[in-house]
């Protein structure tokens, strides 16, 4: 009998990509979420859906609920999808032996989920990073930036995801005002001041990996063709492209820390000079994971093979797989929102390109054999607008 897997945070695209990938191999998959609405919830592929308490509002209750679901449903493996990854890793002792095999090390998750610590770690690995301003008094920040000759800069909260917690300033005074507002809004203590970095211009790239107890099993590189927010964030269109500069840099980071599990590193690459800079590591599944899966690097299934049959079985499977180059995948709902925003602003040419000239080989969120999935995703965004007045609302605990 194949090992039943539980996927958490079931509403998101990464979870559905994993659900589709695993069930394509005949693996039974149960899903769970704090929401009743979502992509996996609406899918015909799931074996069973359960609800748990939100890990943002009740961490202990969330872990208790997941452990209870695992016991009641004879779950063999837990595959988390988003921010709950670190929480489950931290409380892995509440899961039965073996159920935690796909979870990364909690300390490694905590390091990469802290932008300040991950920046320092990447720098210690000899990886290029944007220049960062060290400051203790926000009242001196504007003068410091002026002395450096910086006008534009990037301000990052130490915790954040999908462009949440990232802000841009066009002058030293605006930067200092933004930092003051963030300190006030998030009640930040002196040891968690926002990070202030130089603005680096370039294309967004990602290098994704599967490691098994410190050993690399598979990797994949892509370039972001279009992003939901022009300054960076979730990609709506991306393509497979090799990059001989960022790939060894990314692997150096994961080798050095002795990574275990799935992760994606993000980079900025200047298309004119080839210079590149480390941005962050997502120590979990990532939003664009549908691209490598459809292109021939089936990360969820490879991880499942490592846990159930051993890493050599995963290596052998990947060795006989054909990786498609070039290959593009598209987040349809994301592109619809980008196109609508361009239409409203009067940029008709860009809207036409976004909506009708994607030239994608695969979609993240619309499937003729599982059509309700798209409407489950759409329902979540409508719910977000109604309840939170935003397509991408921030919950307590997401950023700070």
From TrEMBL:
Note the PROSITE patterns from the entry: ATP_GRASP (PS50975)
Instruction: Write out the GO MF terms.
Output: ATP binding; metal ion binding
Q: Per the UniProt record, which residue ranges are transmembrane?
A: none
Taxonomically, the superkingdom here is Bacteria
Record SUPFAM superfamilies: Glutathione synthetase ATP-binding domain-like
Query: InterPro entries annotated for this entry?
Result: ATP-grasp
- What name appears for this protein in its UniProt entry? ATP-grasp domain-containing protein
Native organism:
Spiribacter salilacus
